[in-house]
Amino acid sequence: MENPLPLVEYTNIGEGDKLLALHYFDGKCCYCGCKLTRKYGFPNSLEMEHYISVDAQSVDSDLIINGSINNRVPSCRTCNRQKSNTPPEQWIRSKFKNADEIIEKIEMFFVMQEEFLW
Fold it and tell me: Which of 22, 42, 102, 116 has its CA 20 to 30 A from that of 32?
């Protein structure tokens, strides 16, 4: 896939990374907790969502993490579309009563990834 933003390195997520993310989040959307399906086109279809949007990363060239597993989380199609380019914590807090719990679990996923990759 050609990179739409030259400052952002784009890499595809491998099947192993998807499975690891799905296992960590128990096969559920990291935001709303619905059970994900690999069938395309459903509200609960699996999408490996950019936690920090590509647009937000293009503003800060230090955030060259676009396609990395360190910026991707399993999301349902519905949450991915609703979140869009909104800063993740802002969107989560506006949508979910258990926002702190959701954010903490996502942050721990990224910490785990960093420890695993290094």
Answer: 116
| HSE of 34, CA atoms in CB hemisphere, 13 A | 16
Q: Give 42-64 pLDDT, tens digit per residue.
A: 999 999 998 987 666 555 545 44
Half-sphere exposure (Cβ direction) of 11: Cα atoms closer than 13 Å = 12
Q: Where are the chain's structural domains? A: 15-117
- Name every residue whose Cβ is closer than 8 Å to that of residue 107 and which is 6 or more positions away in sequence: none
- Coil, strand or helix: which one is 38? coil
21-33 pLDDT, tens digit each? 999 999 999 999 9
Copy the structure tokens of residue 101: 């719990």
